[in-house]
Amino acid sequence: MSFQETRLKLAIQKSGRLADDSRELLEKCGIRFIKSRDQLFCTAQDFPLDLFFVRDDDIPAFVASGVCQIGIVGQNVLSEEILVSKNSKLKSVKEVMPLGFGKCRLSIATPHGFDYRGAESLRGKVLATSYSGLLSEFLKDQNVEAEIVDMRGAVEIAPRVGMADAICDLVSTGATLAVNGLSEAEVIFSSQSVLIQGLGIDAQRQEILDRLILRINGVLQAQNSKYIMFHAPVGALDDLCAVLPGSDAPTILELQGRDDKVAVHAVCNEGVFWETMEDLRHAGASDILVVPIEKMLE
Ligand code: ATP
Ligand code: ZN
Q1: What is the CATH number of the domain that holds 160?
Q2: Distance, CA 287 to ligand 2 centroid (Å)?
Q3: Domain residues for 165?
Q4: Among the atoms of ligand 1, which is closest to the Cα of residue 55?
Q5: Exposure winner among 44, 193, 244, 278, fewest CB in 10 A?
């Protein structure tokens, strides 16, 4: 009889905008895996996790059917699949946690000369999109009837070639819209990548998932945190601590041979910007160092 270790199965995007960030997140969690270019499946070293590399649109269905217990996908894709797919199991897929990458918005964009004054301006118009589910919901909420042309890609060319009056597409910087003579008129859905989970995970796999969530939380917290060190006149300590962003109890250390100054070390859970450093200097700090944190467990 051979011993079979229980392993958690995770579906991630094979290639595309979420692929690198998904793999990088796992690597930062200390999970290493070697994947060759065309491989669809691989086994992680150091952690009981198997990886499936698939198209992002298929990830919710992989998780709903139980082929994988978890997945990493954009909220836009999850919501759209739930709305348009005939697979009723998709409704049981839940978001576990946001992952902070793949941020984008699904927006109505109009060509120059289209006088957009809210959803009402779309009444009777033709709209091209790859997100007919989310767009239909939006139009229904707004009580607006319009025609939807479903396109798989290159949605942004539709108005130029006369296929549509306006589009509804994903935007992150807006550069693609601008190149195609379109401008963003209204955001209908904001999205980022999320960890998703299906129904019916057994206790052993749930334990593995809990370990993974703890590590992901550690990585995300470390990403948003900085370790800050500076020298401070003893008399200015209260003012300086008030300037430190998102830090409750800084460490105060003696400086050898000095009784007028101390060293302050703190973990800041909010952004430390040049303005923060200028404010600290203004309040009396000197020798200010800001360093990234690699890992963090509370
Ligand atoms: P696949 O081949 O896996 O089906 P795809 O071409 O459908 O990939 P990508 O373009 O790789 O998808 O985008 C994947 C996800 O990245 C999107 O669903 C969305 O969540 C996110 N994303 C972030 N910014 C953008 C953007 N500017 N345009 C499109 N998607 C974006
Ligand atoms: Zn896709």
Answers
A1: 3.40.190.10
A2: 49
A3: 104-191
A4: 3
A5: 278
